[in-house]
């Protein structure tokens, strides 16, 4: 058992005929993922890397029993693609596309949730469980099967850290890149219970960033409901204060959202917080040996 | 994955009000002028009634204290007010327009805004009876916060709760209902990150938006091509970067950083600072596999004249050989006198090819993050 994906995961790639869709279909196949279908409206009957392409999700699911989608379509079409996946019976939709308007996510997220579909992303590198399945774009070379879970708001920084875990001689159970957008389908708090329940995960690495309160919210969850050891890293300690959401945004997060606030919240619940990415593997080793938070 | 770039489209007040008008938000009568003569004639021709207020159109706050808002009773006073404001710099921002508006008999000043609550993944309506001051200075207990579900949209009870928090009752509550409905439509239909009225004034038995702050989400501008032309507070290099879709931020230091992905970029800055370096420009390639874009990024970096450049790439969508090719191509275009030392760290997809291309061009790639960052700090002249 792993988290959200396993050997039974059957992937339909939405936007498979695009450049990124094609490249990463190949990479997913190389990883061992069961990519069973692609969807590009108007391209039914063709194939990409030997994978049949359909016009609609409904056709793809009917013919191939796909249960998971990986979305590469351009940002203006993501909302439609995800709603189609939800209505077509897809259980997990991983949205790699960046620059998706958050107003579109405000529609997609509740729509999917009400119908039992989970979204990961948008603007995310996806999810992978080494030896089982990968849905997304994380480079295959960073993985090795093991017992460390990873959840991250970053993309490339995740690759860096997952790779560091591998180079230390450890491996990963499941790694989820949540995406860095203001509204995401799966947050730390959404992902934590999945790793708590996963018998293949012994310790968890959380990679956060400044901005928002997702890490503080995660710390609050960990305090009462997460028993496994946690190693965390927060990127952006030296970054100039961002003002993305202007004054009204500052009011919502009042006092939270800074690196200091996140580090303090996580340390207060027993997480080992790395100051730099290269400290993470060592802390993970310590955490696994101690076996508890 | 996305860098904290200046990615929002902040509308100047007059344009925010233009949007408000379209959705029926009550406003003072007003017009925009770009010269003192134009300002004077707008009033002289009766397009804006007297007495009036002349307001500098800048994006920074605190205009009232800086003389950027002036009152006038005659067309001549309007002209001289416009003269003293136009062409002036206000907190570093050149004033190109003034908004001339009728001066109204104002009662109470209130605060209303709609923005996003990221944690709740819902829009957030904030209302306070304490308007006309910076909302940060208002106590939490004096601000009513309500998340609004897009299905079914702003409800009657939410409007009633907002009215209560604003101390509004009787006939005025009908005006508030209409205003909140309009504001909700602006937020949704214009893809806003923030819609804020501060102050919202009680004028007689009605309401009037004296100011307008509207921020449109940059990612949604494909639905709103009209906003593409809105100027923003970017530096020239930042503007060029924006056109080329490269996230680019100028800081105070002398080490140029090129990385891919916001998280890795921020982690790189953290390590450089820790080692005593001073990151200057940072530039996030994002996910690209176009060598031309890498070349453009390097040429942009060269224009910022860094003492050294630290290239830290983990290749996923971006392949290492693509980055290496782009770098080599760019350096061929930079005159020898303007070159800077480059410390590279490239890992991930096609790593070996990338390293080989760099080595052939005389650039060494160091795989350890700490060691490579230290090399960059040294190349830029050591600790500062």
Q: From the alpha carbons, calculate the radius of gyration of chain B and give it in angstroms.
A: 26 Å
Low-confidence stretches of chain B: 1-6
The CATH superfamily of the largest domain in chain A appears as Succinyl-CoA synthetase domains
Let me know the number of strands of chain B: 18
Tell me the CATH topology of the largest domain in chain A.
Answer: Rossmann fold
> Any idea what the radius of gyration of chain A is?
19 Å
Q: Overall mean pLDDT score of chain B?
A: 89
H and E order of chain A? EHEEEHEHEHEEEEHEHEHEHHEH
Name the strands of the widest sheet of chain A in spatial order: 3-4-2-1-5-6-7
The number of helical segments of chain B is 11
The CATH top-level class label of the largest domain in chain B: Alpha Beta
What is the approximate shape of chain A?
globular
Quaternary structure: heterodimer
The major pleated sheet of chain A works out as: 7 strands, mixed
Please state roughly what percent of the residues of chain A sit in beta strands, choosing from under 5%, 5-15%, 15-25%, 25-35%, 35-45% or over 45%: 15-25%
Tell me the number of strands of chain A: 14
Entry summary:
The complex is a heterodimer of chains A (293) and B (384). Chain A is an alpha/beta fold and 293 residues long. Chain A has 10 helices and 14 strands.
Walk me through the structure:
The complex is a heterodimer of chains A (293) and B (384). Chain A has ten helices and 14 strands. Chain A has helices spanning 19-31, 57-64, 78-87, 102-114, 156-167, 188-197, 214-225, 246-253, 259-268, 280-290; strands spanning 10-14, 34-39, 47-48, 51-54, 68-71, 92-95, 118-120, 126-129, 133-136, 145-152, 172-177, 203-209, 230-235, 272-274. In chain A, the strands form two sheets. A seven-stranded mixed beta sheet of chain A has the order 3-4-2-1-5-6-7, with helices on both faces. Chain A has a seven-stranded mixed beta sheet with strand order 9-8-11-10-12-13-14, sandwiched between helices. Chain A is globular, with a radius of gyration of 19 Å. With 384 residues, chain B is an alpha+beta fold. Chain B folds into three domains: 29-102, Dna Ligase, domain 1 (2-Layer Sandwich); 106-229, D-amino Acid Aminotransferase, Chain A, domain 1; 236-379, Succinyl-CoA synthetase domains (Rossmann fold, 3-Layer(aba) Sandwich), CATH 3.40.50.261. Helices cover 33% and strands 25% of the residues of chain B. Chain B has eleven helices and 18 strands. In chain B, the strands form four sheets. In chain B, strands 1, 8, 9, 10, 11, 12 and 13 form a seven-stranded antiparallel beta sheet that branches. In chain B, strands 14-16-15-17-18 form a five-stranded mixed beta sheet, sandwiched between helices. Chain B has a four-stranded antiparallel beta sheet with strand order 2-7-3-4, covered by helices on one side. In chain B, a hairpin with a 2-residue loop joins strand 5 and strand 6 (93-94). In chain B, helix 4 packs across helix 5. The longest helix of chain B is centred in the middle third of the chain and has 18 residues, at 172-189. The chains are: A alpha/beta (293), B alpha+beta (384). At the A-B interface, helix 4, helix 5 and helix 8 of A face strand 8, strand 9, strand 11, helix 7 and strand 17 of B.
